[in-house]
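Reproducibility note. Readers wishing to regenerate the assembly model reported in the main text can use the exact inputs given here. Chain order matters: entities are listed in the order in which they were concatenated for prediction.
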Amino acid sequence: MLLFRIRSRKDSEAFGQLYDLYIQKIYRFVFLKVSDKEEAEDITSDVFLKVWNLLIDEDKQEVKHVSALLYRIARNAVIDFYRKKQHVAKIDIETVEEIGEYDKHIQAVEQGHETQRIFEALKKMKREYQEVITMKYIDELTIGEIAEIVGKKHIAVRVTLHRAMKVLKEILTEKI
Amino acid sequence: MSRLLQSQLKRMREMHGSVNPDPVWVLENKRNMMSQIGNTIGQEKKQDVFSNVQSFFQTFVPQRFAYALKPAGVVFLALVLTTSGWIASAYAKPGDVLWNAKNALDNVVEQGQLAFTAQEDQAVLHLKFATKRAKVIQEVADNTVDPKVKTDIIKQTVEELKDKMDQATKSVNNTPVEKSKELVKEVNNKVKEITQSLSETVAKVDTVDHQLAKDIDKSSLDTKQKSLAMIEVVVQKKTDAQVEISDEEKDIIKEHLTTAVGDMKEEAVKAKDQATGLVQEVKNSADEGKTVSTSTVSVLGSGSTASSSTGVNSTGTIQNNINVSSTISVASTTKEIVDGVAQTASQTVQTAETKEVEVKTLIQTNVLEAIKKTQELGVVVQQTVNTVEKTAEILPTIIVNSTLGTIKTGTSAAPGTTFVPTTSSTVGVQIKTVTTTAK
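Running the prediction on these inputs yields the following structure tokens for the assembly.
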């Protein structure tokens, strides 16, 4: 219904609600790829503006899932970002320090340490694996939605996800 | 391990400040973005209903479904249009745009009905269709539509009625002897309905369009003749199969023949009255000083000339004595011709009276012969009516032409051509004004 309101009436309020629903997910998705807080914020902001322009476009293209649209645009934005910057993904020391500062109370507990470890492991994985794990287990998207975002068939997404989890386990095991 | 890992991944969502955005930035960014998109919608026009519907479909109906639904949509639309058109045309009145569509649809429905009806029952169905046409003629005559449209529709429907009666007559051959009683009953009832409708229509139309009334009258006579032919086939088949005609059938046939003869007699009387009127008209013209007894007969001769020799021979068979001449060599006067037509009409009335008695007698002993006598009377009456009508049609021309001068007789001239006098006549007369041909 939000989508209908945005598309037919160019309802900015509806878009505001859409923003509230997806901002965290999209930011997280972008941040895990660019490893930079400011870049992630800029890209996320651009993603939402692009989605707005696309939704109110007169030559309306089909939008099956708005979440898939957001992730797809976010994914392309990240690809563009790397293409421009020729950036090599790595964990930013400052970001790690920021994480440390923000989550002092969480990291204090064992659980927090473990989560941090997984985050670092994710950063070491190839982009494709990183994506599917993020979308499936952090953002809890369905296989169908992921397939639509990455442009693959359901079965291919399942296989990729399976392999990605296997690699993640291996990285985490190595660390131990 | 796998499950633990999955739950740890899920917990990453709750890690404030690490992988999640700064809440302050989220709010700030939202405010900025809303301000930006607010500027874009300010310039947009309000969408119309069509765009809203389009958006609705684009949002809620997947595109591949939309593609798949397209043929179904076209079929649905066609059905809606057809159904609405059918409903609209079903209530169409004469002169309406959908009147022709209604007729076309009725014809299709009739063809469908015929396709699903056994051949042995089709005669009754054709009679039903003919009755429907008679009702349409009556309905149109009652309607306050443009007179020209009304005339056109009635003429067309009269033709359709004739056609349906023809088809009914042909279909009788397929009716088995066992179903003859039902068929005879149907013929009698339907023809009664048809002639009743047509008779009422004639009464309404006559004052407005005399010619149209005549056409309808002829159609009524034609229907009666065809009904006699139908009954004749039924009786003949029974006779051939040596199956006795039941009393009930006899009664129906008797009723039918009596009505037919009575109607024919009535037609003959009407023709006689009209002929008498013509005689009076010629007499009046003569009294006014117009020359009516010159060679103007040549004009009449090019169309039709009725002799006064109509009569019944000694065996009781009515002779077709209404001679039609296509030559101009007939030497006679207008007065003689009109007198002759009047005499013919008068004799036809007498013949009808005689035949009425004969038919009533024959029906008890020889049904087939009674039918034949009635049919013969029908032919004579129809010819007499035609002759009187044609005489009435050309009579004003004769009188007018006669005042122009003498026209040479004996010159061959086809109807529709210009008559060129071969001798020293004072005026040439274009014959195409009287191109009637007796049938």
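We highlight two features of this model. The mean pLDDT of chain A is 79. The two ends of chain A are 48 Å apart (CA to CA).
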